[in-house]
C-alpha cells in the first residue's frame, strides 16, 4: 500500500510532509505545550536535588538553570503561539532541552564531590526526554541525541575521580539507552506517519466510494436510453411527497403521454430508430419541464411528468398542449400514410388533485391514464384533462 511505500523512504516527500505537519498541528500543539510545562517544572525542581547531593554547586546550578533555561522556556511558550509549522515548534522544544542538558553538565562539572559519579547517571534522563518524552520527528531525535551524548561524555572526563573504567561503566548503560530510545523514537515517528497515510488512503477510498455510490444511485434512478428518471425514481418521489404531507395532503399534477402508433414505427424502421425516436421525445420534454418537475419514462413509449401543485385547469391544458405541440414540431417521419403531416405525435392525459397517501397518488396516475386513453380514442395527437379537473 501507499503508506508502506512512503514509510520505507528515509524522508517523506516535502509536499506530503508539509500536509502532514499542517493537519497534525492543532492536535499536537496542546500536548507539546503541556509536556513543556511539565518538563520545566521537573527541571527546575531538580535544582533542589542538585543542591542536596552536591551542596558545593547549589548556587551555581540555581543561577544557571533559572537565568538561562528560565527565559528560554518563556520564549519557547511564546514561540508556540506563532503561526509556524508544528515541526519548527518541535525543533525549538528539542533545542531548549539540548541547551538544558549543556547547562546541567556545566553546573555539575563544577563540583568537587565524588558523589557526582553516581549522580551523573541521571544525565541519561535527557536522552529519554529528547527521544521518548517529546517524541519529535526522527531527524530531530537523532540530532538531539548526538548533542546530549557529546555533552555528557565530554563533561564526564572533568568529573572528580573519573577513571577510564568509570567512563566505560557509564557507556555500558549510556550506549544501550541511546540506541533503545532512538529505536523507540523511530517507531513512534513511523507509526504516526503510517497512521496518517493510512487514514489519507481511507479518506481517499471513502471519497471514491461516495462518488461511485452517487453514480450508481444516479444510474439506478435514471433511464439509460432517454436520461429521464425511471419508475424507481418515480416511486421514491411519490413516497417522499406522501411521507412529507400532513393530514391536508399535497397538491400534485400528473401528465401521462404516449407516442402514437409507436409499434408501427418500430416495425417499419427497427428498434434502433425506435430508440432514437424515444430519445428525441425525451429531449423535447426536458426542455419543457422545470427544475421542480419530475419527468419519467413510465414504460415502453409512455412518459410521465409529475408537477408539484395544482394549477388552474387552463394552465394544465396549456402545458399539456405545449408538450403535444413540441413533439409534433420535431417532424419525425412516421410510416403510416394518411396521417396529418406523417409525423410522430403523442397523446396526453392529465389529472390533478390533493393526494394524502401512495394509494391516492396511484389513483391520480390512473385518472391521467384514463384521460390519455380517452384522447387516443378520439383520434390521437390530442391532449385531454381528466373530468375531475374543473
UniProtKB/TrEMBL annotation:
Range of residues in the leader sequence: none
SUPFAM superfamilies the record matches: Nucleotide cyclase
Annotated GO CC locations: plasma membrane
Transmembrane segments: 31-49, 61-80, 92-110, 141-160, 166-186
Entry's Gene Ontology BP terms: cell adhesion involved in single-species biofilm formation; negative regulation of bacterial-type flagellum-dependent cell motility
Superkingdom as given in the UniProt entry: Bacteria
One function term, GO molecular function aspect: diguanylate cyclase activity
Pfam families reported for this sequence: GGDEF
Positions of the GGDEF domain: 250-388
Keywords per UniProt: Membrane, Transmembrane, Transmembrane helix
PANTHER family per UniProt: DIGUANYLATE CYCLASE DGCM-RELATED (PTHR45138:SF9), REGULATORY COMPONENTS OF SENSORY TRANSDUCTION SYSTEM (PTHR45138)
The name this protein goes by in its record: diguanylate cyclase
Organism: Brucella lupini
Lineage: Bacteria, Pseudomonadati, Pseudomonadota, Alphaproteobacteria, Hyphomicrobiales
Amino acid at each position: 500500500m501507499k503508506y508502506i511505500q512512503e514509510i520505507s523512504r528515509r524522508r517523506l516527500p516535502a509536499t506530503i510532509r508539509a500536509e502532514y505537519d499542517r493537519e497534525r498541528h492543532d492536535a499536537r500543539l496542546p500536548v507539546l505545550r503541556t509536556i513543556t510545562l511539565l518538563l520545566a517544572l521537573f527541571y527546575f525542581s531538580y535544582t533542589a536535588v542538585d543542591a542536596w547531593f552536591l551542596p558545593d554547586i547549589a548556587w551555581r546550578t540555581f543561577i544557571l538553570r533559572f537565568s538561562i533555561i528560565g527565559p528560554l522556556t518563556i520564549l519557547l511558550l511564546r514561540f508556540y503561539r506563532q503561526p509556524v509549522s508544528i515541526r519548527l515548534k518541535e525543533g525549538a522544544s528539542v533545542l531548549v532541552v539540548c541547551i538544558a542538558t549543556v547547562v546541567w553538565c556545566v553546573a555539575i562539572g563544577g563540583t568537587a564531590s565524588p558523589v557526582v559519579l553516581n549522580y551523573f547517571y541521571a544525565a541519561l534522563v535527557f536522552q529519554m526526554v529528547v527521544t521518548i518524552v517529546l517524541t519529535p520527528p526522527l531527524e530531530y531525535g537523532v540530532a538531539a541525541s548526538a548533542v546530549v551524548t557529546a555533552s555528557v561524555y565530554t563533561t564526564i572526563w572533568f568529573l572528580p575521580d573519573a577513571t577510564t573504567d568509570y567512563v566505560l561503566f557509564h557507556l555500558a548503560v549510556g550506549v544501550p539507552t541511546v540506541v533503545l530510545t532512538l529505536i523507540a523514537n523511530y517507531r513512534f515517528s513511523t507509526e504516526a506517519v503510517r497512521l496518517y497515510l493510512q487514514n489519507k488512503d481511507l479518506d481517499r477510498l471513502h471519497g471514491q466510494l461516495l462518488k461511485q455510490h452517487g453514480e450508481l444511485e444516479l444510474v439506478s434512478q435514471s433511464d439509460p436510453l432517454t436520461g429521464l428518471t425511471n419508475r424507481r425514481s418515480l416511486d421514491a418521489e411519490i413516497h417522499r411527497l406522501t411521507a412529507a404531507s400532513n393530514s391536508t395532503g399535497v397538491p400534485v399534477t400528473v401528465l401521462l403521454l404516449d407516442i402514437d402508433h409507436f409499434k408501427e414505427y418500430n416495425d417499419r424502421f427497427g428498434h434502433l430508430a425506435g430508440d432514437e425516436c424515444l430519445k428525441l421525445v425525451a429531449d423535447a420534454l426536458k426542455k419543457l419541464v422545470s427544475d421542480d418537475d419530475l419527468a419519467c419514462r413510465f414504460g415502453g413509449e409512455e412518459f410521465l411528468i409529475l408537477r408539484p401543485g395544482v394549477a388552474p385547469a387552463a394552465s394544465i391544458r396549456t402545458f399539456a398542449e405545449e408538450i403535444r405541440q413540441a413533439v409534433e414540431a420535431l417532424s419525425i417521419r412516421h410510416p403510416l400514410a394518411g396521417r396529418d403531416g406523417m409525423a410522430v405525435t403523442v397523446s396526453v392525459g392529465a389529472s390533478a388533485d390533493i393526494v394524502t397517501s401512495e394509494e391516492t397518488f396511484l389513483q391520480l396516475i390512473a385518472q391521467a391514464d384514463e384521460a390519455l386513453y380517452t384522447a387516443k380514442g378520439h383520434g390521437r395527437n390530442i391532449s385531454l384533462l381528466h373530468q375531475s379537473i374543473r
